[in-house]
Queue: 2 jobs
Job 1
Amino acid sequence: ARKYVENVEFSAMDATRSDPKFLYQVYAAAIKAGATVINIPDTVGYALPDEFAELVKGVMENVPGIENVLVSVHCHNDLGLAVANSLAAARVGARQIECAVNGLGERAGNASLEEVVMIINTRKDYVDLTTGVNTREIYQTSRLVSMLTGYNVQPNKAIVGDNAFAHESGIHQDGVLKHRVTYEIMHPEDVGLVESEIYLGKHSGRHALKAKLEEMGFYLDDKGLERAFIRFKELAGKKKEITVKDLEAIALDEIRTLEELFQLEYMQSSSGTGAIPIAAVKLSREGKSYEATATGDGQVDAVCKAIAKATKVKAKLVSYQVQAITKGLDAMGDVTIKLDIDGHEVVGRGVSPDIIEASARAYINAINRGIQKGLLEKKKLARKAKAGTRGKASSRKAGS
Amino acid sequence: ARKYVENVEFSAMDATRSDPKFLYQVYAAAIKAGATVINIPDTVGYALPDEFAELVKGVMENVPGIENVLVSVHCHNDLGLAVANSLAAARVGARQIECAVNGLGERAGNASLEEVVMIINTRKDYVDLTTGVNTREIYQTSRLVSMLTGYNVQPNKAIVGDNAFAHESGIHQDGVLKHRVTYEIMHPEDVGLVESEIYLGKHSGRHALKAKLEEMGFYLDDKGLERAFIRFKELAGKKKEITVKDLEAIALDEIRTLEELFQLEYMQSSSGTGAIPIAAVKLSREGKSYEATATGDGQVDAVCKAIAKATKVKAKLVSYQVQAITKGLDAMGDVTIKLDIDGHEVVGRGVSPDIIEASARAYINAINRGIQKGLLEKKKLARKAKAGTRGKASSRKAGS
């Protein structure tokens, strides 16, 4: 492999349940063959911190040539110890920790990037290590990953959970007010959690919106900005306060809106006790209109069935989630829908103060992603599209 | 304190950032004064495992009389290390781990019970400890706690997350099929995660439902069972398959339904692009009817405003969440609403295949809980109720 690239990582699956002596030989052979990174994975999340540190130390002391390569660890979280194991390994000399934002990964996930980074950062005094990570981007990154993957973060998740910096009990609140260090070992600002004021209202113009969005890191094209502006005006008419999170929701929604695919033009729905939930939708795509009506077990079911009819896309619902983006009943509803289209999962999201409309947007977004990934209308796409549009969906999952 | 009770636990707040020598003296004094449990809390989740083990060891070796008391630890999860720290302490002799189901607790929470238990259970070979916990109740307990507190569990949470036992990548799936131990260090059954078959359909009677519910651990009174049966029949008419999770949702909803408080009799709602969302509700309480209509930013907003009008309860929405209980678009929607009533938070939940109805049920449930906790109608309640109905809401939060 070294003939083709500079950087070759060798990983021994399930290292923590292997015979260490055999493992040393395998790693030695890999280094001889040109590996530049030796990875020690805890593939099924079985190791305990002391035990794992012992294994890493063993590798560092017994593998010939190990001093010339980078030692890496890749821990899974099946027993909730991925972060502790990674840290234990770093303390005995591993210098690469494979981790993921929000701790995402196979099964219970991998070591959580934000926890690993903030441990090293907060406890420099004890661990004597550094990372190159700009911690102020952690919170935004976590939200973005959560929005795009459809995997929510539980409120009591360390560092990036909604409650991570919330002091509820009276005795703690009192302590924080009197002396901040009492209960805060990290500042919310350290991870980029700032509830910054926003001075946009219904009289603000396009330029003000554009400037604010760019300050937040969102760069929309002209069409996207125009649509975002219309939605911003609508929202400003309804809500007293427009928050950073509202703007973020609109911007992300526009970034997700795929051009020249199905767009929601119109929808209507109703239900009641003893009445059959009913919905009507009108979609457009490349100038053509698609209309349908449907009934369902609830309005969400009805509106999604109507969209399915209008688009002629058959899909199975895998999961459905809603979260309120801001507080108050006039909050934007943020709906995530995961569909199974022909055995492939696609995630769609939509936001709106109306939960049914948000659901419709999420469903359409998922279908549009399915189309973009080439899961639907393969023949039509094959004719029109350039190579490379397809196949993106299947090559994402890797081993270890 | 020992004069009044047998079991006295002494806890030294923020022990991990205290001077150990001083800490030894404090603990020694507490033991002299009669403490039977000495608790070492990591109040702000600041400690690293080795460091914490060192502290616990120090206490065990340097505090006079420590051999006659139980050493306990109470770890917080601010850096994601609560479980690892608790385990490290247990390995040097602590014999009480204070933990919480789903890792709930102040800020990022406490050590997660299910992770602590499953580590000790799965790695008996290494840690040589046992717990008295029946692990087969873990999954159900986690779901129940999540439903009752309104704190969701993220899909990649160890042990009890939706994905904890899901193998997604091809190489892992292949491994599991060939030899289960390859990727499963625990069996889903070990924690009580069983997708058991259910043979109830639209022709099943009350007795079959009652028997099945009791098998699942739900004991409803006659009224509750009658209402559950009606909802079961409705659902069986709509859905092909009734799952254990559907039944669980109905049973929990009935358990939550508080007698003689507001009940939902009727509701109707609709919205559309360019149309104003509108809702009408009819509630009953102790034989009286309460009706109202309202408009809102979305149907959820409209229906909640209508309920607020009908009940005359002023409340602020703190959070709103929806999850689908089962797969498919005909899934039951499970809505959690957290309200702020006069500075006190109450959580309400409601389930229905119709998300707007589920929202209405959740809102009413939250208001009913507020009433039950004595947050509303204090004068009226004071006249009617016996002592002890009030005050329950405020005394829950404790220190450390």
Job 2
Amino acid sequence: MSYMIKGEAAAIETELLKDYRFGQQQLIEIWGQACALAITKAYPLSSISKKQPTVLVICGPDQNGSIGLVCARHLRIFEYEPTIYHPKRSSQNLHQDFTVQCEKMDIPFLSYLPTEVQLINDAYNLVIDAMLGPGSDISNIKEPYLGILGTLKQVKIPIASVDVPSGWDEEEATQDGITPEVLISLTAPKKCAASFSGKHFLAGRFLPYDIQKKYDLNLPDFPGTDSLIEL
Amino acid sequence: MSYMIKGEAAAIETELLKDYRFGQQQLIEIWGQACALAITKAYPLSSISKKQPTVLVICGPDQNGSIGLVCARHLRIFEYEPTIYHPKRSSQNLHQDFTVQCEKMDIPFLSYLPTEVQLINDAYNLVIDAMLGPGSDISNIKEPYLGILGTLKQVKIPIASVDVPSGWDEEEATQDGITPEVLISLTAPKKCAASFSGKHFLAGRFLPYDIQKKYDLNLPDFPGTDSLIEL
């Protein structure tokens, strides 16, 4: 399997949207649902230690955040108890719609993230990091995300990151960054995933063969009808 | 479990689109993917008798047809060999996009349906009927669908219908209509499903609990993380 260098994920997405006429909404739904399934594999309800299967989903302002919102919605359907922290909402209708879908399904939204880390450790079984994603300018991370990353570096409960751990460079792990237990790669792993040593999933099974070939992705065979695979 | 009377499916969909701010594209993707999974359950690759796992997907002009297109695309990803017959294409961008996605994935489109039924029996393992769906005016079925129904009544390979068998009334089976082997109900079974005696699936697991309650749907529990259940 090959790793995608900087810009390749964006180029593939542009091709899917322009040439294949996929919709952004459609892709985000596919990816978010696949992320939720990865979480159910990595942390099945039966394995969850706290009484309630609570999950804190931290959503960024852009596409990675919307994938987090879809993931939270499907986790709710799978009987988990997600809580969302979505500090900066996008002005785009598309992203707002995903927010409303969660609100209307009575998924609670936090108005702020406790700075007292123990409160997070006590309240949730895990954190889903759907904040910055690929293509973020990590040399210039602004608030509130800088503060959130500071908090996440201290939490003791596991973190599962969507696509690229927040604060990591797409091409290499950030030395003093967060250390997720699980990484859910979308489309194909980004180069930084090569230095990730936790549980690694590839999620979202829909990529046209011509695109897989063109970008030399060498994706593994997904088992049966699963939409994800543990790498 | 309760059956939906005429108009309820449409009312639920309106609520999902207006109040919950789901997108039509998003719903069609969810339903089409779930239909493909139902087909893999009903007709697993290992059970298919012909050398090639060919499937003929007949798509109508509206939403049911688009669900068929999404189903065909996912079947292709699951290593089936779908062929699409889509005689009347919608002028709506949304539906056209689903068509392009299939075309770009090299799924063949028939330009006409053979009237010689034996050709269909010989070429395909099964037919997916994604033609008319709920809400169609079955007292006034026009060409080419009338002719297609005539052909489907004669085919010897199994038919799997999406949501409502084409030509059936939403509330009761049509006596001289087609007799599918499989019915894939979306959202919840329509009343006509009560008189269906084949393999019956409920597919698409995403419906907000408040809607399930409001419409008294009494949906069964989906097993594990499955997005479908055999009823």
